[in-house]
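Thread amino acids onto this structure.
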């Protein structure tokens, strides 16, 4: 049985500080979006806010406070609304897929239906050799604000348009991510599926009375990496490439 460094359950984890600054509708918070293949969980660790969700059953608001734990499945459009210092631990299924474009932001329909326009609207500017650190941050902040406003506008169109508008958005979202699915399958095979296979091997070994895998125990660590997320400032952890602190014997 081989050693595995996969994060528990093939999930990923990050800490989210939800954006401040009012949008055009007067609410502070993140960029509305959905995931096409992954379930997302919020565990609130500080502050207060609201989770707005939209699906074929309509718009819903769920209050968030310290200790709140909610999760939502693929197709659930969600928007984190910050009502004062909202901080969340985010757990994502299918580690690697959300980072590989699993999310689709709720831009207006003419943008979501055009892959080129969608990429342009979603992109954040890269750092350049001629820009200072302050200039780079300002450029990214401006781009984050622009795409958030665009997604909020589309979110309201979807909420007002009813089930048919949402179904059209789903069709466009599927078309956007479809070219990425082959790569996603490789990621899923090496994380979630591999974790399930490893657990099956462990259970088989235990049933035989074989505990050799216990001798390959190890401690892993993944330091946080700062980045800009759709919902706020992220301290993400690269769980696919952990630092192995106490590798077991070979």
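Threaded sequence (250 positions):
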């Amino acid at each position: 049985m081989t050693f595995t460094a996969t994060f528990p359950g093939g999930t990923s984890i990050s800490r989210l500080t939800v954006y401040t600054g009012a949008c055009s509708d007067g609410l502070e918070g993140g960029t509305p979006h959905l995931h096409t293949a992954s379930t997302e969980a919020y565990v609130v660790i500080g502050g207060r806010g609201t989770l707005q969700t939209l699906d074929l059953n309509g718009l819903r608001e769920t209050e968030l406070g310290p200790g709140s734990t909610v999760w939502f499945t693929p197709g659930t459009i969600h928007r984190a609304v910050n009502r004062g210092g909202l901080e969340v631990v985010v757990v994502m299924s299918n580690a690697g897929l959300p980072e590989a474009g699993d999310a689709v932001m709720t831009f207006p329909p003419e943008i979501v239906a055009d892959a080129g326009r969608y990429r342009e609207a979603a992109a954040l500017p890269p750092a350049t050799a001629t820009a200072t650190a302050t200039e780079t941050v300002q450029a990214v902040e401006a781009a984050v604000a622009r795409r958030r406003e665009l997604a909020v506008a589309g979110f309201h169109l979807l909420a007002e348009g009813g089930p048919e508008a949402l179904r059209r958005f789903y069709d466009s979202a599927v078309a956007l991510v479809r070219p990425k699915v082959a790569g996603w399958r490789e990621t899923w095979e090496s994380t979630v599926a591999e974790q399930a296979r490893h657990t099956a091997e462990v259970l088989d070994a235990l049933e035989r009375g074989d505990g050799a895998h216990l001798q390959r125990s190890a401690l892993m660590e993944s330091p946080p990496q700062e980045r800009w997320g759709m919902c706020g400032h992220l301290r993400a952890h690269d769980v696919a490439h952990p630092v192995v602190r106490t590798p077991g014997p070979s």
